[in-house]
Design goal:
heterodimer, A: mainly alpha, 2 domains, B: alpha+beta, Immunoglobulin-like, six-stranded antiparallel beta sheet, 10 strands
Chain lengths: 186, 216
């Protein structure tokens, strides 16, 4: 952790809201990405990101400054995501995201790529146990140990879940003909 | 059986064997590709997550202000804590020794008060929602949680309009056994538990809590 971040956290701990705003600016995209990857819904990911920063601020005194701050923050967000998914099982199911969007933005044009669509749809069908380590690994760039810390499971379990998750993903894509297309584009 | 018949039978037999076991070939292309290009799926996932965020990043605009607004609206005890008093001590113009003594007193009193009255970070707290227990039993008149974290004393859950009962606790990392008590009598396991254990004549649910409240 850089000294400036440590300073910001210490100021935030002293209820300096400007410092906390700066922390949020630095991390909101990462937290949103993790939440979106797990929940697969923009509105819920936005709510969760906001809630994660509120919760993290309230619990900042419990944060061990020896630990990587981003990992701690992802833990807060991942737990909120899991609570949300737990509730969704009983009440209104999370709305299915429309991954295709219009417009001429290069990112959106890319998004229309057929294979990417199949990856997204396959991710929608993966269970939390597989999806969470996947987004922490491939979006947040955490290593196995960090993912284990975030999810509260042993490192070996993370490796197993990543492996099985990918197998499952390929199976789902295979059903949709995704690998056929993948062969042409890989 | 002449040689010609045997040849045909062998041919047929080999073909049948292959037909029987052909399922092992399902998805083999993918497995081979993964070995030849082990990173292809990883890269695709990475790219997929990044593009999703890029396309939706507009929702993050102004989030800092919204969070701060909410934090400032909350009661003081939610946004402050006894540890945060330490950095503010110099503002009191006390000398270092006095500041240290004052901090120790504040810490001890804070702990005693927190233990006696219940700290905002300990014990059941519906708003805090550290680890949430949820169960859908619309027909129940009351649902309570009992567990080793409540010393097996019933804690009332709150019902929503759909008959979903919830209650949140702030729990330390660890393994917890619990059950739901329906209408003050019937003990039921949690359908969403991480695992189950037999206890006397009933089944207890088990929840594992990681360092920040929930299980994976």
């Amino acid at each position: 952790m850089g000294e400036s971040e440590l300073e910001l956290l210490q100021r935030a701990l002293n209820q300096d809201m400007e410092a906390w705003a700066e922390i949020m600016t630095n991390y909101k995209r990462a937290v949103f990405g993790v939440s979106l990857g797990i929940l697969r819904n923009t509105a819920d990911a936005e709510d969760t990101t906001q809630e994660a920063f509120i919760r993290a601020y309230e619990k900042l005194h419990t944060y061990n400054m020896q630990r990587k701050f981003s990992t701690w923050l992802f833990t807060v967000a991942a737990n909120l995501c899991k609570n949300k998914l737990r509730r969704a099982k009983f009440s209104t199911a999370l709305k299915e995201e429309q991954w295709v969007e219009g417009g001429e933005d290069p990112a959106q044009i890319h998004e229309r790529d057929e294979l990417q669509q199949k990856v997204r749809k396959a991710l929608d069908k993966l269970r939390f146990d597989y999806r969470a380590p996947m987004v922490l690994r491939f979006y947040a760039d955490l290593d196995y140990k960090e993912i284990a810390d975030v999810l509260g499971v042993p490192e070996g379990t993370v490796k197993t879940r990543l492996h099985r998750g990918k197998q499952e993903l390929k199976k789902i894509m295979d059903k949709e003909g995704g690998l056929e297309h993948g062969r042409q584009t890989a | 059986m002449d040689d010609r018949q045997l040849d045909l039978m062998l041919k047929e037999s080999f073909n049948l064997d292959v037909d029987d076991q052909a399922h092992v070939l399902d998805g083999m292309e993918g497995r081979v590709l993964e070995k030849i290009q082990p990173q292809s799926l990883d890269l695709m996932l990475k790219e997929s997550f990044e593009i999703d965020v890029q396309a939706r990043a507009h929702v993050l605009e102004g989030m800092e202000d919204r969070v701060i607004e909410q934090l400032l609206e909350q009661p003081a005890e939610k946004t402050s804590n006894r540890w945060s008093l330490f950095p503010r001590l110099p503002q009191l113009n006390l000398n270092f020794a006095m500041a240290g003594a004052f901090a120790i007193v504040i810490f001890l009193v804070g702990n005693m008060v927190g233990d006696f009255w219940g700290s905002p970070f300990g014990g059941p707290d519906q708003d805090y929602q550290g680890v949430t227990f949820v169960v859908a039993i619309p027909e129940a008149n009351s649902v309570e949680v009992v567990g080793d974290f409540t010393s097996w004393q019933p804690q009332s859950m709150t019902r929503d309009d759909n008959g979903v009962w919830t209650l949140a606790f702030d729990l330390d990392p660890g393994r917890y056994e619990y059950a739901f008590v329906i209408d003050g009598q019937e003990w039921k396991p949690d359908p969403l538990a991480d695992e189950y254990v037999k206890s006397y004549n009933s089944t207890n649910s088990v929840r594992y809590v990681s360092s920040e409240g929930e299980t994976s």
